[in-house]
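Why does residue order matter? Because the sequence determines the fold. Keep that principle in mind as you read this record.
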Amino acid sequence: MTGIAGIKIKIMPTSPEVNLKEIEDKAKEIVGGEGGFNRQYEIEPIAFGLKAIIAFFEWPEEKEIEYLEEKLGNIENVQSVQTIDMRKIA
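Structure:
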């Protein structure tokens, strides 16, 4: 029996002009399509008008998170993706 992890990932856009809603929608599609369950997406101000998306979702523990990070990093106008928190929730 495997558990569920709560994952928080910071998604950084390439510039302040990028449409964050488009990135968020694509991220939700990827997470859901890979077996995750979307919980919450927030916008976090970084500096000089740049904002990041903080994605929080449930993820099956047996699945590698690195694969998901790579897919999220391939979204158009995404500069970087970083897991900032991971903990067992079920």
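The radius of gyration is 13 Å.
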